[in-house]
Design brief:
Radius of gyration: 23 Å
Largest sheet: 6 strands, parallel
CATH topology of the largest domain: Rossmann fold
Strand order of the largest sheet: 3-2-1-4-5-6
Number of domains: 4
CATH architecture of the largest domain: 3-Layer(aba) Sandwich
Shape: globular
CATH class of the largest domain: Alpha Beta
Number of strands: 22
């Protein structure tokens, strides 16, 4: 597949890295000579220095025979015009644009992106996606990551194993004997920042970060098995009233009306705007690093604080302050890769990375075959893939132990007629089953082929 990526920032770089690993023909366009030089030196991609929406630059990038254009520059207008030019002049089939300005995203203007006006096939709002990701993590207390799959029948969950975790030092093959009625499959372990694809004889150690796929009906029992029986937050404080904070507060008000919610925002005009837009939440104007403001927000009795200001250092320090004052859980937005390895030792419970969330959202529209959703796990570890089994798939009709699945691909769950099946070696995948797999980064392309349909492009 031939893909043009407009924008060589963090998101553009990571999408290019993922797609280049899978032998796609990738061209990256950016007006920064420094960024294009860095990406061409680091990745096996073609890099062009130029303005991404200019027709001559897109022509130079090979738009005439490109299958897809992904526009993730810093400017919404450049992303939108790049998609328009790609459609009108080069007839590019698939166009994806990242758009941040909320004025472009209101429902009443949705017709703007139709083929007759400004043809963008997929519009992605990072702020909205991050707010949704935080809300998902709040629904499963004790998890540092949570993704809903197959219409929420299955969840991929990440937990940390403490010293008192009941299943540490137990070979994975014995978990079925210990919990015979629990539909859970462990698909990944991260130990000392080193990712491990588990085998049956592997076991978990205190301090491990464990990713497992579980029947949504069994999530509370699964969390208890890992030593996590935290209750859902009833008192919560959001640090930062920007787009993410406002979206998240609105989501909580709509879907969790029993939650007592406060928002702290430093800018007076913004605080007034957020106070007008929310119905029940209390909005305080002040610094999230001011202990008097934190005391006024009653952070000490909050089950969770969510730090989503636009500054990483402020998010980290305010989270640590809140934990020190007595808050049980801190969810912290961090953009910089530099800080990510430090967070577990600091006591931050959940880290949210806008870059990873945006990349995951874009990738699920890039994948070929009958793939319904894709979610990246950590940075370069692998992907959780939800796919539909077709007649042409090599997985269909034979026991899993006889399939040609690579060693670093694990089947986490199968959903058939609404029922979740925990895969065993003798389980047979049938046509139209929804299959949830974990695939290491280097095997994603092979998984795509298994779920591809002849003569079908997307």
């Amino acid at each position: 597949m031939k893909v043009i990526i407009c924008g060589a920032g963090q998101v553009g770089f990571n999408i290019a890295r993922y797609l280049a690993q899978e032998d796609n023909e990738v061209t990256v366009v950016d007006q920064s000579a420094e960024l294009t030089r860095k990406i061409s030196d680091t990745l096996d991609v073609k890099a062009i220095n130029g303005f991404a929406s200019h027709p001559n630059v897109l022509a130079q990038a090979g738009a005439a025979d490109a299958d897809m254009l992904i526009a993730v520059t810093q400017a919404d207008e450049v992303n939108m015009v790049a998609c328009q030019v790609a459609h009108s002049l080069f007839d590019v089939t698939m166009k994806i644009a990242r758009i941040r300005q909320q004025g472009y995203l209101e429902d009443k203007w949705a017709n703007l992106y139709s083929r007759d006006h400004m043809p963008i096939d997929v519009v992605i709002s990072p702020e909205l996606e991050v707010a949704r990701a935080v809300a998902r993590r709040l629904r499963v207390p004790g998890a540092f990551d949570m993704i809903s799959l197959v219409d929420d029948k299955v969840k991929m969950t990440g937990v940390r194993c403490g010293e008192d975790c009941p299943v540490v030092n137990t070979p994975l093959r014995q978990l079925t004997q210990l919990f015979p009625d629990l539909n859970v499959v462990i698909v990944g372990i991260v130990r000392d920042n080193t990712p491990i694809i588990p085998k049956a004889d592997d076991h978990m150690l205190p301090g491990d970060e464990v990713y497992f796929v579980v029947d949504s009906n069994h999530i509370e029992r699964a969390m208890a098995a890992f030593g996590h029986e935290e209750t859902e937050a009833r008192r919560m404080v959001i640090f930062g009233g920007g787009n993410i904070g406002e979206f998240l507060a609105s989501e909580i008000e709509t879907n969790h009306p029993s939650v007592n919610l406060k928002v702290i925002e430093s800018d007076k005009k913004r605080a007034e705007h957020v106070a007008r837009s929310l119905k029940r939440s209390v909005v305080l104007q002040g610094s999230v690093l001011d202990t008097e403001i934190l005391e006024e927000a009653n952070v000490a009795s909050a089950e969770a604080v969510v730090a989503v200001t636009n500054d990483d250092e402020t998010n980290i320090l305010s989270s640590l302050l809140a934990k020190r004052m007595g808050s049980r859980r801190a969810i912290t937005l961090i953009n910089s890769e530099t800080y990510l390895p430090l967070t577990p030792s600091l006591g931050i419970d959940v880290v949210v990375s806008p870059r990873n969330i945006t990349v995951s959202t874009i990738l699920q529209h890039v994948r070929k075959g009958r793939i319904h959703s894709v979610h990246t796990i950590r940075d370069g570890f692998g992907e959780i893939i939800e796919a539909e089994a077709m007649e042409t798939s090599s997985l269909v009709g034979v026991p899993l132990k006889e399939t040609d699945l690579p060693d670093n691909v694990l089947v986490g769950a199968i959903v058939r007629d609404g029922e979740v099946i925990t895969p065993r070696s003798d389980t047979v995948v049938q046509v139209n089953d929804r299959v949830v797999l974990f695939a290491a980064a280097e095997s994603v392309r092979e998984v795509e082929k298994m779920f591809s349909v002849r003569l079908e492009y997307f």
